[in-house]
Amino acid sequence: MAVTYGSRRTVVGAHYGVRDWLAQRVTAALMAIFTLVVLARLLLTSGPIGYDKWAGLFAGQGMKMLTFATIVGLLYHVWVGMRDVWMDYVKPVGVRLVLQIVTIIYLLGCAGWAVQVLWRV
């Protein structure tokens, strides 16, 4: 007769935390690379920095693609972080679901606005 002590723990979603941890690190690295590229291009620009310089910085297709990838990374980074905050600190399931839906709607709105601004340049 086998004796067991305590409750049997069921683990759901193995490596779920590792995936989110890695996603946060990869998206943070992408944002850091983007920041360094923008700073380098601005430091190499001569003269006063006005609208024309900013528009010129983001006018090239390569910079638009890097900016778009950074925006997508930033939105995913924010989603993972906010979802974890809601899951850790908001215990009523209904309130948590509403907050997650509001967060998704807000992030989709930000994505639409960012893409509109980016491709208007």
Automatic annotation (TrEMBL):
One of the GO biological process terms: tricarboxylic acid cycle
Pathway listed: Carbohydrate metabolism; tricarboxylic acid cycle
Annotated membrane topology: Multi-pass membrane protein
Recorded superkingdom: Bacteria
Stored CDD domains: SQR_TypeC_SdhD (cd03494)
GO cellular component, one term: plasma membrane
Function: Membrane-anchoring subunit of succinate dehydrogenase (SDH).
Record protein name field: Succinate dehydrogenase hydrophobic membrane anchor subunit
Organism for this UniProt entry: Ramlibacter tataouinensis
